[in-house]
């Protein structure tokens, strides 16, 4: 397999004009902002990218554009979620052909339909056979599917390209420890999710990377470096104000309303999200979001 995937891999927002079309100029600026911020890699078309709100053609166009702009400077993980293994595999092949370092998927689900463990295994088996790059299994609460540690380990033992996890369902620190304690477990790395609110503690639990939102990449990189250098208490002290912002983003200003911070930082032109816009995204809510960012020291208002 290629080089190990580890470190800070922010999820790249999808930038939109007010007319709901993708703003590729802002997209390019966002890519450069993240790379300048020291990211180890980037993630495309994930939930925090509004990937589920893009058409199949928009996904392909966006993947091709971003991978062309990134041009191998950092590895890119492309999300290929879909309830159909065939559709997911085809998108994974497209991403691989355009230079993706890995693909990521949740187990298949649609509405109230939830795949059973046998179906999940077949889904990842077909994805495994479709590509030659690593697969990241995303254990996300959104799917409402419980995947036990024993099942995840068996999945990776069965399929040689299933080599990474992204944990963001339940107690991710505990589940990470459980997985890593399995003798001869085959995973090469585990990414923490949940906006990176507790990244230092996730690393302490054994996570080898994090996938936060993309509005403060330099903060996550600085914290990551301090932890890797053994300066854990210093890292926590530095990161704590920003962890409040990450928690607010995740629990209060979700659905990419946090793009307002990227506008305030001069990175992208507009904060538009794909319609329908969340009803809570009022001027008052956006101003409170910016206050939290200001209190963290990320922006000045």
Automatic annotation (TrEMBL):
GO cellular component: cytosol
InterPro entries to which the protein is assigned, alphabetical: Aldolase_TIM (IPR013785), DapA-like (IPR002220)
Gene3D superfamilies for this protein: Aldolase class I
Entries under Pfam families matching the protein: DHDPS
SUPFAM superfamilies in the cross-refs: Aldolase (SSF51569)
Keyword list, A-Z: Lyase
Protein's name in the database: Dihydrodipicolinate synthase family protein
Lineage: Bacteria, Bacillati, Bacillota, Bacilli, Bacillales
């Amino acid at each position: 397999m290629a080089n190990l995937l580890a470190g800070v891999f922010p999820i790249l927002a999808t930038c939109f004009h007010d007319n709901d079309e993708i703003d590729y100029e802002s997209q390019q600026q966002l890519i450069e902002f993240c790379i300048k911020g020291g990211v180890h890699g980037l993630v495309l078309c994930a939930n925090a990218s509004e990937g589920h709100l893009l058409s199949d053609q928009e996904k392909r166009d966006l993947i091709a554009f971003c991978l062309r702009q990134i041009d191998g400077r950092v590895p890119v993980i492309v999300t290929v979620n879909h309830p159909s293994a065939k559709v997911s595999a085809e998108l994974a092949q497209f991403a691989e052909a355009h230079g993706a370092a890995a693909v990521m998927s949740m187990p298949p689900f649609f509405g109230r339909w939830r795949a059973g463990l046998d179906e999940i295994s077949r889904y990842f088996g077909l994805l495994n056979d479709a590509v030659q790059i690593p697969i990241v299994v995303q254990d996300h609460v959104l799917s409402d599917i419980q995947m036990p540690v024993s099942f995840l380990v068996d999945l990776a033992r069965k399929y040689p390209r299933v080599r990474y996890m992204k944990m963001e369902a339940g107690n991710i620190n505990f589940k990470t420890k459980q997985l890593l304690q399995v003798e001869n477990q085959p995973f090469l790395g585990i990414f923490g999710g949940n906006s990176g609110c507790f990244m230092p503690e996730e690393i302490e639990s054994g996570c080898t990377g994090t996938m936060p939102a993309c509005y403060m990449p330099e903060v996550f990189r600085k914290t990551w470096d301090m932890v890797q250098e053994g300066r854990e208490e210093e890292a926590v002290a530095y990161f704590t104000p920003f962890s409040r912002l990450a928690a607010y983003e995740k629990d209060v200003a979700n659905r990419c309303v946090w793009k307002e911070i990227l506008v305030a930082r001069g990175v992208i032109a507009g904060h538009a999200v794909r319609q329908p816009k969340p009803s809570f995204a009022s001027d008052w809510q956006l101003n409170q979001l910016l206050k939290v960012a200001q209190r963290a020291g990320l922006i000045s208002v």
